[in-house]
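Figure 2 data, in text form.
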Amino acid sequence: MEKELRAWRIYGAISALAFVVIAISAFSIARHRRVFGTIDVQRINVVEPNGALRMVISDQARFPGAIVKGKQYPFDRHTAGMIFYNSEGTENGGLIFGGRKQANGTVTSYGHLSFAPVRAGSDLQPR
């Protein structure tokens, strides 16, 4: 009985040590900066440390709906691009582009760049 208990203690100690080594390795690797030649993505969300959304870069399929005060509302824009958000979580401008092929074969395209005006008391005012 004592031999079995001792074997289980050794097994537990080795398992705990292996877990600690793996956890430390994972966190130390995560701190290093990564460099990529090419990245293929469908959407990138840029967020603050508290999780607040600040910018979205997206293809048409994953483009967000209208976001006002952190709440997303369905809005099909048929576009791709980049959208910026202010401190209250509301869309604050962006760069979008897109195009369509009409039923008659005519191709149309568009682009749009916009920025919301700075209001008194906003987070963009000089301090």
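Caption note: The chain has two domains: 1-35, 43-115.
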